[in-house]
Amino acid sequence: MRSPSGSAGSGKRISRDGTGFGSRTTGFRRIGELSRRGCIELCVNVFNWIKNQKNYCARNDIYNMMIRLHARCNRVDQARGLFFEMQKWSCKPDAETYNALINAHGRAGQWRWAMNLMDDMLRAAIAPSRSTYNNLINACGSSGNWREALEVCKKMTDNGVGPDLVTHNIVLSAYKSGRQYSKALSYFELMKGAKVRPDTTTFNIIIYCLSKLGQSSQALDVFNSMREKRAECRPDVVTFTSIMHLYSVRGEIENCRAVFEAMLAEGLRPNIVSYNALMGAYAVHGMSENALSVFQEIKRNGMFPDVVSYTCLLNSYGRSRQPGKAKEVFLMMRKERRKPNVVTYNALIDAYGSNGLLAEAVGIFRQMEQDGFKPNVVSVCTLLAACSRSGKKVNVETVLSAAEARGIKLNTAAYNSAIGSFINGAELEKAIALYQTMKRKKVKADSVTFTILISGSCRMSKYPEAISYLKDMEDLGVPMTKEVYSSVLCAYSKQGQVTEAESTFKQMKMAGCKPDVIAYTSMLHAYNASEKWEKACELFLEMEANGVDPDSIACSALMRAFNKGGEPSNVFILMDLMREKEVPFTGAVFFEIFSACNTLQEWKRATDLIQMMDPYLPSLSIGLTNQMLHLFGKSGKVEAMMKLFYKIMESGVQINLKTYAVLLEHLLAVGNWRKYIEVLEWMSDGGIQPSTQMYRDIISFGERSAGIEFEPLIRQKLESLRNKGVSKSS
Question: What family does the database annotate (predicted)?
């Protein structure tokens, strides 16, 4: 069909249909230019115009160019459509056509289509090139199908097409995508054995795999070797970003920032992924001001923050207990037309949930669905964790029902969160029932599951049940971890099964799990419960030798062992060690120190200790303070007892009837009837009614011990006190 020409006076040559594309030759040239610039819509318009021209003749190079362009833009359906269209025009696909189309399907993750295209290519007697094989290996590998990728690589070699460095890198990448990190390292060793010279891409994959295997030191060695002066492969932006991720995972934020600065110093321009890696490191540790600074730096450098950038900033506010600011980031994101994703919503749910705002977290969950996003298992885990923090039992079951209604299959982490939530709510039976459901649905429990169940059972004094989970672990082949060992030791300790505890402790060390302070503390409690004071003292020496610093709980257990084992002087040595290492003092620690002072008659030290107690008094239980008052009183140190009492009163600790009873008992024992009556007055003023026995005791004392001179005075004061109480009540 011919189109009318343009007006004669226009001075500008236009096509016969008025499009301005010119002749077919010009159109083909224009497609090439636009393709290089990635202007896909203009390319499509020019190509459609060419096809409408008279005497149009289909050309392989143009179809191949268009298929490649569609592949770059992830428009696989359009690329496949052109493949069939060119054949209708009697234009036979060649090796380059198949390469472009296999690449398009690989980019889209459609590796089976890519395999089928290779079969079609072979049936058409078109010999695959090295690029064809590389594209097909990449199609399989990028989808995580590393076995199929290796099969294609084998066929490639069998057909006489030798692999090049690109092939080797694609195979390494296939292992990486398939999470076969150890296999990737083994393949790299084979490459070195075959004298294949790696490039920066190779090393980037190796660094990633080493990091995932927890071999961060080896990953850093590779990175440092790349930075040496004579190194053939210099690190690029991807390399530096990978090392930043490594330090972020290790919690070494300063090193993460230092690597970022080193990248700038070497003249490399960070991309958005690099900035996001730095922001992510700050976000995890709740360093919101630093994260905001990086966010602003992205904008200053002429880049646009992406959804990951906004999510990192939002997460940093959530982790720094600023859920309101996290919501502001979410709203700003929408205002700037950056579409949030599921990860963003989950971060906002966590921002509210981790700060105890369960209702707001549930609201975001519902908003997420209203906005057209499907919650995933991470959303459920986050809500379950929020339920656990809020302590509201009913919400755990509601969240589980909501997950089931939406077809969300719970994974191990989700079950662990739910079981932990039930246990935190003291609902052990429901936790066990959910564990049984987990087994029935063939979701494999891990060491975290058993740590939660064993420690939870111990907390609720269900020690035999705690031990019973060991058999389940053995049956499932779940390895014992340090946390599980510590929980089992606690269970044996609480039951007084010291032999079993010793056996488990020994097994723990033989398994290569270095006992931590929790494990040592459990053993100390076991020895204390069985009155094996000497073994407890020996264990303390072992702790020192292994470089394990005792915490407050361990120190109180050790002090008890020293006191009961006849070595109270060691309590003071441990007290000095606690001061040196800045271990916080607790009520139990103070009680054991006072006990040692009592045994050794170290009353000056005990009196000095009262002064030291000031910062700790508000956190001490009234039961422990009463015990300490009694300790002073029964030793006849009434002045010290009263000094401690005054400190307790100043700290704002709520005094009860038992406290006053302790004071009165010991005041009367030393004949201080004046202070006794004064304490009765304090009780009355404090709204605590003295018992009848307290009055009887002082009257009896007056009759028996006060003498004729003071007995009437005691009765007079008591009568006045009683009248005062009556007038108050009326």
Answer: Belongs to the PPR family. P subfamily.
Per DSSP (E only), the strands in 380-420 are none
Distance CA 197, CA 230 (A): 15
Give, in order, the Cα–Cα distances in Å from 536 to each of 510, 568, 585. Answer: 20, 14, 20
Class of residue 550 by CB neighbours under 10 A (exposed 0-12, middle 13-18, buried 19+): buried
* Model-wide pTM > 0.85: no
What the block records as the tokens of 290 is 């630093």
State the DSSP code for 653. P
* Selection from 609, 559, 618, 631 nearest residue 588 by Cα: 559
What pLDDT score was predicted for residue 258?
A: 94
DSSP 577-614: HHHHTTPPP-HHHHHHHHHHHHHHT-HHHHHHHHHHTG
What CA dihedral angle connects 600, 606, 608 and 611, to 10 degrees?
160
Burial of 69 (0-12, 13-18, 19+ CB in 10 A): buried
Residue type, 686: G
Give pLDDT, residue 20. Answer: 43
Report how far Cα 364 is from the mean position of its chain's Cα atoms.
21
- Separation CA 586–CA 616 (nearest Å): 7
Cβ count within 10 A of residue 94: 15
Cα–Cα separations (whole angstroms), residue 532 to 360, 559, 564, 576, 629 = 53, 13, 9, 24, 28
| CA separation for the pair 91, 62 (Å, rounded) | 11
For 437, how many CA atoms within 13 A lie in the half-sphere containing its CB? Answer: 17
3-state SS class at 376: coil
Contact yes or no for 99/134 (Cβ under 8 A): no
Under-70 pLDDT residues of the chain? 1-40, 56, 390-394, 706-710, 722-730
Dig out the tokens for 443 from the structure. 């979701």
pLDDT (tens digit per residue) in 643-685: 888 888 887 777 888 888 989 888 888 888 888 888 888 888 8
* Whole-number pLDDT of residue 498: 87
CA–chain centroid gap for 513, Å, is 22
Contacts of 220 (CB under 8 A, 6+ apart): 243, 246
Query: Is 287:296 a contact under the CB 8 Å cutoff?
Result: no
Sequence-ordered list of residues with C-beta below 8 angstroms from that of 195, at least 6 positions apart, any chain: none
* Terminal CA-CA length for the chain: 113
* Cβ atoms of 432 and 440 closer than 8 Å: no
Render pLDDT for 333-372 as a digit per residue (tens, 0 to 9): 888 888 899 999 999 998 988 887 888 888 998 898 888 8
197-to-4, 55, 223, 422, 636 alpha-carbon distances in Å: 61, 52, 16, 56, 85
| CB 110, CB 76: distance < 8 Å | yes
Under DSSP, the state recorded for 618 is: G
Whether 295 and 313 have beta carbons less than 8 Å apart is answered as: yes
- The DSSP H or E segment spanning 192 is helix 181-193
